[in-house]
């Protein structure tokens, strides 16, 4: 829609047209008059830069319903418009000194019903010829319930669906203020005019905590994370799994054109706007050194492309999807997706809809509630999920 003539009112205004705003708008638009306001182009920030990995089942082994909700959505949504969900297992390569621990963990997960098993190095190499593991990685944990998507196509397909259901998208339009009257949200101001609405969903990525600074404290800080693409001279698209290497700060997945994407190397940043959009030279070098240690054609690796982007981190790495008790009525927050926003979008959308409508959902609310944090300051220690090592922390 033309940003010069925004609608004057709506049932729900969504602030932010990333994957979370688009997914939430789609689920709300069937029953509400929804306006999504995006300061730039749709899905042009963290969403456009994501690797698109869907590793939500291994990330939520304490809440299996979270992983299964997301996976069911991806299976069902596959084939909608241009959207494709690529079902692909993952291998978490385990350094030799952690083999015992990894075997125990995979047994525990398998007995809890996860499709997980431990493979020794020979089994990995015969199943996936792209690997050459040597003595350093004597095995790995195979997680079957994983896959990947193209994040931009995913978000724009959600937006197309939302539009079909009646949602309006205003791009190149910033929301400047949330309007509150008598303890309740009454709308937003944008740089092209006011939109009155009793419900405002703030899905503004890492900017959410700054945007709501005067409304309610949100413990989300920006961090920078990166990806590079390698051409190994062999086609990895069919034969290669996804995976990650604890302690090495990397995850990887095949590209459908046969290349390999390697991501990770995440650090908190105090300069999210000025931060470079290129992959760091140290990261490129790290991957160049690492590739021959686990890839059969690692010595042939040729750098194709690299980039960095900024996402929002929370103290415990899980997002905040909530109507905060101390915020004005009608304010819903969906932020802090900490490297997992693409895979968590179906879950976030269902939770946002449930908060707005009051409908029941089988999804748990507690891992996403704001009041799980006693301290809501933005000054917390950043935990990198791409280290693949829960114990790994840095300032
Ligand atoms: C390099 C990289 C790799 C990643 N890999 C993965 C992965 O493999 N799997 C995965 O699940 N996740 C991954 N992520 C994380 C994922 O990209 C994010 O968690 C997800 O995109 C967050 O979506 P979002 O909608 O919250 O944020 P965003 O995509 O950042 O969208 C927020 C939007 O809000 C808009 N906005 C902000 N303020 C305002 C305002 N005042 N008015 C109007 N609009 C506003 C912004 O312009 C922006 O478009 C990766 C991220 C990066 C950077």
UniProtKB/TrEMBL annotation:
Pfam family, one: DAO
Domain FAD dependent oxidoreductase, chain residue ranges per copy: 11-352
Gene3D superfamilies hit by this protein: D-Amino Acid Oxidase, subunit A, domain 2, FAD/NAD(P)-binding domain
Coiled coil: none
GO CC annotation: cytoplasm
InterPro entries named among the record's database cross-references: FAD-dep_OxRdtase, FAD/NAD-bd_sf
Origin: domain of life: Archaea
Segments crossing the lipid bilayer: none
Name of the protein this chain belongs to: FAD-dependent oxidoreductase
Biological source species: Haloferax marinum
């Amino acid at each position: 829609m033309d940003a010069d003539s925004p609608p004057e009112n709506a049932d729900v205004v969504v602030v932010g047209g990333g994957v979370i705003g688009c997914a939430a708008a789609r689920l709300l638009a069937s029953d509400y008059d929804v306006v999504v306001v995006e300061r730039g182009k749709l899905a042009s920030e963290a969403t456009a830069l994501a690797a698109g990995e869907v590793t939500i089942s291994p990330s939520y082994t304490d809440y299996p319903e979270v992983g299964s909700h997301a996976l069911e959505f991806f299976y069902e949504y596959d084939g909608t418009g241009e959207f494709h969900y690529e079902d692909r297992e993952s291998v978490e390569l385990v350094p030799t000194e952690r083999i015992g621990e990894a075997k125990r963990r995979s047994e525990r997960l398998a007995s809890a019903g996860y499709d997980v098993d431990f493979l020794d190095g020979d089994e990995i190499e015969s199943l996936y010829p792209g690997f050459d593991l040597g003595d350093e990685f004597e095995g790995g944990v195979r997680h079957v319930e994983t896959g990947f998507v193209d994040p931009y196509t995913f978000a724009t397909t959600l937006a197309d669906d939302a539009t079909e259901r009646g949602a309006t998208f205003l791009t190149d339009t910033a929301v400047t203020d949330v309007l509150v009257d008598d303890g309740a949200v009454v709308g937003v101001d944008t740089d092209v005019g006011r939109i009155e609405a009793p419900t405002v969903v703030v899905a503004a990525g890492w900017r959410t905590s700054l945007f709501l600074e005067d409304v309610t404290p949100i413990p989300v800080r920006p961090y920078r994370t990166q990806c590079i693409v390698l051409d190994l001279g062999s086609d990895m698209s069919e034969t290669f799994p996804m995976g990650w290497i604890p302690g090495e700060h990397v995850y990887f997945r095949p590209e459908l054109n046969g290349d390999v994407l390697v991501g990770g190397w995440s650090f908190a940043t105090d300069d999210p706007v000025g931060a470079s959009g290129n992959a760091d030279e140290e990261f490129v070098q790290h991957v160049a050194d690492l590739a021959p240690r686990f890839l059969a054609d690692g010595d042939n690796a040729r750098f194709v492309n690299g980039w960095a982007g900024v996402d929002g981190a929370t103290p415990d790495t899980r997002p905040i999807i909530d109507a905060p008790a101390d915020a004005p009525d009608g304010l819903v927050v969906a932020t802090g997706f900490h490297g997992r926003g693409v895979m968590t979008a179906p879950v976030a959308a269902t939770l946002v809809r449930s908060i707005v409508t009051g409908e029941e959902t089988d999804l748990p609310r507690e891992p996403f509630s704001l009041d799980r944090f006693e301290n809501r300051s933005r000054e917390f220690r950043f935990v990198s999920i791409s280290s693949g090592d829960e114990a790994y922390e840095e300032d």
